[in-house]
Amino acid sequence: MNDPGFGELGDGGNRPSGIYLGFYNKLDLVNRYIDGKDAGRMERMAGSIDPLTATVNQFNPVTMIATAMQNVRVASEVYGTGEGYMWEAQLLGAFKGMANALGTAVAVATSWSVVGVAVGAAIIAAGNSI
User: Which domain of life is it from (predicted)?
Assistant: First the structure.
């Protein structure tokens, strides 16, 4: 007997209800369509943002504060963690991220100098030790 399949796990045949393809196959087709439409726009956007701007934007204070507030709220309400502990963790996480970005920037900007690369590596190491 030929198994018609339900299409959910990649079977491309007709479903017993007569609907062609399954949910996941249709989802895959829609995602491919959307990816194809957005590919050109994403390439244009990626080419318009220089590395320095991207590095600075990741440390937007408003975004950092909003994320920290949400993390502290969830940790205290859902997991029962103390708010003081979570604020300390958020602050250390922010400093760690800034130290790693600063160390990378120093190492790249002074890549012509062994001392500059060493200073950048030391800043990264300090950030990773937090």
Answer: Bacteria
61 pLDDT higher than 50: yes
Distance (Å, whole) CA 38 – CA 16:
35
**What predicted TM-score, i.e. pTM, was given to this entire model?**
0.48
Alpha-carbon distances, residue 15 vs 20, 24, 27 (angstroms): 6, 13, 16
91-129 confidence digits (pLDDT tens):
888 888 888 888 888 888 888 888 888 888 898 888 888
| DSSP of the chain | ------STTS--S--TTS-SS-HHHHHHHHHHHHHHHHHHHHHHHHHHS-HHHHHHHTT-HHHHHHHHHHHHHHHHHTS---HHHHHHHHHHHHHHHHHHHHHHHHHHHTTT-HHHHHHHHHHHHHHHT-
Residue 113 phi/psi, 5-degree rounding, is: -120, 135
Domain residue spans in the chain?
A: 1-48, 50-128
